[in-house]
Specification:
about 80 residues; mainly alpha; about 75% helix; about 0% strand
Length: about 80
Amino acid sequence: MKQGRERKQNRSKSGFTLLEIIVVVAMIVVIGSAATITVGYYIKRSREASEIMRLRNEELHKILEESEGSDIYLARNTLPSG
């Protein structure tokens, strides 16, 4: 009987139980899922912001091309004499 108790005590101290491993793996999966969703959200927002900036830049370039030189007149001999 003594040997049976010693084996049970040694076995219980030797490692993790299956339940502990399952719980840890489940926690890792939940945390990983939350991280994936969060990262995906920020990637989407970043793409949207990049697209908005690209469209703004296109509009600014159009405005610049349309107005470049059309409203600006250079006068000759405008320096003060002296």
